[in-house]
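chain below, 104 aa
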Amino acid sequence: MPNLLFICSKNQWRSPTAELLFKGHQLHNARSAGTSDKARIKLNQKLIDWADVVFVMEYKHRDIIKQQFNIRHKKLIVLNIEDDYQFNDPELVEILKAGLVDWL
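prediction:
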């Protein structure tokens, strides 16, 4: 069962919404974290190591991860979703479903 990790800045809206889409999923486990020092759950190497696939919301998150963590042998996917949505916003959910169609 692949482990999917979703990353945004503060782990308040985008990445927890993505994680919620996979709650109870039969084929994947999901977690979320943020790159900011103010993140609800701060990204760390242990979470990176846990993940089989790392999804980031923006290219800046990818760049931060590449600079601060060992991500060799990890699949890293940029979803390109800007920070314009609240937690579980219906539009955000639809964008995530479209971007994650191969995983859901």
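The first helix runs from residue 14 to 21. Helices lie at 14-21, 45-50, 59-68, 90-99.
thats it, cya
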